[in-house]
Amino acid sequence: MTEFELPPKYITAANDLRSDTFTTPTAEMMEAALEASIGDAVYGEDVDTVRLEQTVARMAGKEAGLFCVSGTLSNQIAIRTHLMQPPYSILCDYRAHVYTHEAAGLAILSQAMVVPVVPSNGDYLTLEDIKSHYVPDDGDIHGAPTRLISLENTLHGIVYPLEELVRIKAWCMENGLKLHCDGARIWNAAAQSGVPLKQYGEIFDSISICLSKSMGAPIGSVLVGNLKFVKKATHFRKQQGGGIRQSGMMARMALVNINNDWKSQLLYSHSLAHELAEYCEAKGIPLESPADTNFVFINLKAARMDPDVLVKKGLKYNVKLMGGRVSFHYQVTRDTLEKVKLAISEAFDYAKEHPFDCNGPTQIYRSESTEVDVDGNAIREIKTYKY
Amino acid sequence: MTEFELPPKYITAANDLRSDTFTTPTAEMMEAALEASIGDAVYGEDVDTVRLEQTVARMAGKEAGLFCVSGTLSNQIAIRTHLMQPPYSILCDYRAHVYTHEAAGLAILSQAMVVPVVPSNGDYLTLEDIKSHYVPDDGDIHGAPTRLISLENTLHGIVYPLEELVRIKAWCMENGLKLHCDGARIWNAAAQSGVPLKQYGEIFDSISICLSKSMGAPIGSVLVGNLKFVKKATHFRKQQGGGIRQSGMMARMALVNINNDWKSQLLYSHSLAHELAEYCEAKGIPLESPADTNFVFINLKAARMDPDVLVKKGLKYNVKLMGGRVSFHYQVTRDTLEKVKLAISEAFDYAKEHPFDCNGPTQIYRSESTEVDVDGNAIREIKTYKY
Amino acid sequence: MTEFELPPKYITAANDLRSDTFTTPTAEMMEAALEASIGDAVYGEDVDTVRLEQTVARMAGKEAGLFCVSGTLSNQIAIRTHLMQPPYSILCDYRAHVYTHEAAGLAILSQAMVVPVVPSNGDYLTLEDIKSHYVPDDGDIHGAPTRLISLENTLHGIVYPLEELVRIKAWCMENGLKLHCDGARIWNAAAQSGVPLKQYGEIFDSISICLSKSMGAPIGSVLVGNLKFVKKATHFRKQQGGGIRQSGMMARMALVNINNDWKSQLLYSHSLAHELAEYCEAKGIPLESPADTNFVFINLKAARMDPDVLVKKGLKYNVKLMGGRVSFHYQVTRDTLEKVKLAISEAFDYAKEHPFDCNGPTQIYRSESTEVDVDGNAIREIKTYKY
Amino acid sequence: MTEFELPPKYITAANDLRSDTFTTPTAEMMEAALEASIGDAVYGEDVDTVRLEQTVARMAGKEAGLFCVSGTLSNQIAIRTHLMQPPYSILCDYRAHVYTHEAAGLAILSQAMVVPVVPSNGDYLTLEDIKSHYVPDDGDIHGAPTRLISLENTLHGIVYPLEELVRIKAWCMENGLKLHCDGARIWNAAAQSGVPLKQYGEIFDSISICLSKSMGAPIGSVLVGNLKFVKKATHFRKQQGGGIRQSGMMARMALVNINNDWKSQLLYSHSLAHELAEYCEAKGIPLESPADTNFVFINLKAARMDPDVLVKKGLKYNVKLMGGRVSFHYQVTRDTLEKVKLAISEAFDYAKEHPFDCNGPTQIYRSESTEVDVDGNAIREIKTYKY
Q: Any stretches that span the bilayer, and where are they (chains A, B, C, D)?
């Protein structure tokens, strides 16, 4: 029987700056998994799954939590649960993951139109940005009134200023709008800003809190909100095919980092990002946005830098990149930081002689690398995806 | 039995600049209606309906046409018919009617995401605008690849430059994208630019050609495309509830203006608009876009003009307005043009003393007029809708 | 320029038993149309459209009415308006038009699953039929709870017994379910049973009341319900592309028969159907259901009768048939009744020698007639559709 | 801080006859998990996930496989991937899980209507059942043509006769219809009938093969089909929120039983079921269908047995039941078999004195158990769901 076509064995995320989703389960997590509960979570009978849900809900000051296998699932069922009867639309940042990277779930599941807004300050949406794009429910039968504002914290690695969130929340309450947070990296926002999850919980009607990114769990997220909201979201989770059976092991492994000193782990990854940002600034390498937390976004357009060259320069130094976004996480080593500095500056120098104009909606160019890198070293095919 | 609560009798559109949909059936049309065929169009057995469909299809150089009761119906079933299997998205101008004023049909019927693009030149989308926002189908499972470009001609009253359309069409064909045209006012574009409908027909895979706006028919539009496209669109028309029975009278009345000198009628309405635009420019009243055809868009934001005051000033001179868009059509009189000049300049002067900052997505503010206008004259409630 | 490919001129519905939608506008209607109002109904400014809506609403004892271009449109927007947030399902008769002949609108517009029930008595659903198929909302996340019961009166020409409707209504109210009526032929039910429309209005939360079938109007229906319901339905009507402009003529023509002695007209058509039913029974020709009103359903399966032969036998006597359903309406002549008796009995005799077993979901076989009928007479291609 | 409200610790599935989803991970599986790969499966970089997918695909003779977190997810994305452009419908058994227990996914994700068919033989759909309910694509714009037949093997524990599947497949190919199999218990069908998975793979275009039911894995299923099909299904999996990161452990644990002697394990569970079926028959306790494999369906309606009493009688003997379906799996002990015999016969005797008429669409009554069982023993609340 012919051999399976298997990918190469994934050894470590220590040199993987493509995304913080590459964090790998630790030995401590594996040990914990052996003790996990074995109930069927669809029937609400798995202890560790319930413990995880209530732990994260309590941290966010919410009545209930729902374990979901991905952030896309928790975002999309949260938005669907807030929306009642169309025609309606949701408003979000034009870079929001719910709009750009969740494969049209908003249209398919929620039948929702989207008003994607470019922040006037370039970094995050202000209340004024929202008010000037919000579609009021004034009885106009042509329209699709805005029913929900979906924000992302962090977005593009930027920490959402708390006072702006408070202003937006007050206005939402006055206008009967729901406020959801894609908290794929809300742990990073909390760690960096010192704002406790509970305070974010007071602002947002629901938060999708990812576990498998900076927090290092194998899979999943927890969607938090009030009891009625989570009960209905559970129905949508089943409808989406997200109802899973013995999830105890996955829940127990996620609880390990939650019960550890996650703030220090995350702040370590932020420090690497801050250092790289300073390095770039010193070198005149333009960045897209302030590197508040674990991401550094190299402005490929302004630098006229070919993302494919950047990826290959990374490989030259045995560092994995996917494009303009450099994603630090707690498993990245200082050695990798030093190497990525070299890769970026060489790619920047290369761009000065070979300016590249990428004309696509995102700075990330699907890197169809050839067999040979710029320096002639053989490279296996890299399947890189947009961040 | 209590009397019905009926609206006031609508007498004439001569002074109605709210929209060109207010054009009223002419005596000639009424006469024609008496001779109309009486077959059941759902079974394809109504002569005048088939005659209208084939007349307009032939004018646009297309194989077939489908009579629809509204432009929203023909636009939405056209887009649905071009789209096969989600996840996908369509790309259009951020002001496009299919996106802003068709009550989320794109999400509900077609499960489509929308990439609304702000034209870099402020007037119409260039090929570069499209290429820099187009989502390629590169296998990225996060995305919703662009499958269709939907343009509008005219949009905001602006005639789409033919050469730009030709460039966009060539690129669409290279990239396997369909190109639809919301031709609510394509007659206006053709009349003003001299580009025959047939040439537009060569560029667009489908065109929704409205009959009830500048062309003065009571209801409807004709969706033109190839035979296979129209056959499938017929199925979606029935699904949307748009299959109608004895439509002969409506078809026959639409054919009257199509067989008349429609170009002169439209060019007359354009001349009124051009004259108003010049008047405004002379007075320093800012406009949003060039008044190529029958619309003049007063830039309420730049003029800091309260649309509600503008509407009431119009009523003072017995001219009906809905906000910043002044919509001429062939039934508007020169007398109305003179009166609307006065109304606009008084509203502009009023704004200099009472600057108004409208913070909404459209310049049109839903005019909740009081019982009394600015000059004390009693006014019945106006139900005005966004243009 | 080549001639248009036009269908033959449709002269009269006097011999057309395919469907009561073939009723043609009368001279009286054409006269009335000349006096019709000319306002834009999307803005609520057309007098005759508002008059039609309030007339029919008042007849049904409802707060408001909404003119729609087809029964499919009013049925589908009614059901969508009653449904709030999925997952949910509606329950109806397995032969219901909303389920079998509205091109999947329930799934596309309303995202609704359907529980189609076969009536235990073979004619209409009883409360027990409904209770034994109803999906309770008991928190089971696997299910799609029943939110709405959609009944049809008449269905298959059968008048729904009032007392059964009253029982079903009471149970619906106890269980928080909405009750919609597809009233494509509710006029026939009212005329035959003597139950006033107003009494049906007390039972059903909404009724889609067709105008273009037995009532002979060119197009449309009126959806009646409470004010809040109709306001939201208007939004869905626009979304479906059903918002039409100068609909005064169509409204005025519909009002003609409403203000005439429509009961006598309908009872005349019922009398023809009753006579044909008695004729069939006397001949041993099996019927599918009691011919309460204007339909006679020949049981093709039991009679082992080929619908294609029946259609062609009809043509032999210049009578148009589409299959097992014989649809009488007030424009059918007694002469046509006598001829269809001959056609049916000849087809029945033919079946005795050429038994035909149609194995399709409906008794109607899409009649791909050849150029020559059974008796050798040349026949134009008939495009017949399922009833 | 108040204690969490945790469910009781789930110890063993040995006495759990509610569903075979309650099978718990074995020590062997836990050991295997420790060696699992740690790549990110969204990027196709996890070795064990790819190995699982290719193992199951190869067993079913298919080009590719896709690991999904649930059978609902793999069923719904399979059906969506086969369907191109609505309006369309799918045809299935009225008891099919895709129709009754996947929370309206067919309407929400696929916009599909469903034709649920009652098998004429009471057990499984024959080709004739399908042909007499299939909606042909004959151009009828009222309809929603059948595009896909979704069968379930086993369904209701019944093994689908191979020759019937072969007949159905041939007819589907003639009529251009896709054929999907919900293989939640296809392992049971294969074990019992001796038909290899590969032969089922030749018949069905796609099969959703569950791992977490009789095969005992913690979560998931593998959807198998051709390469193009699986590539598109991957896009829908991401859209549904089913893209998960480090799934190596879950994949490795599923491979344990696949690489063990699963047939013996399953046949053991079947033997228990057969024994119970014989016991019931001997006692005159009516069954709904032949107990071919691991399920015994007590006909509650015919036995006039209250499912709530049955559940409580089970608890009296420390055996967990959810209603009429008794689900055996390889972790159930002979002791449990003996006890469930007692529970069922006592409930049956109880029914003779207290006949119960359950009037709901399914024989399973949501068991709102009181604090005390029929024999006075205190019982914790059971959250039982429909099978």
A: none
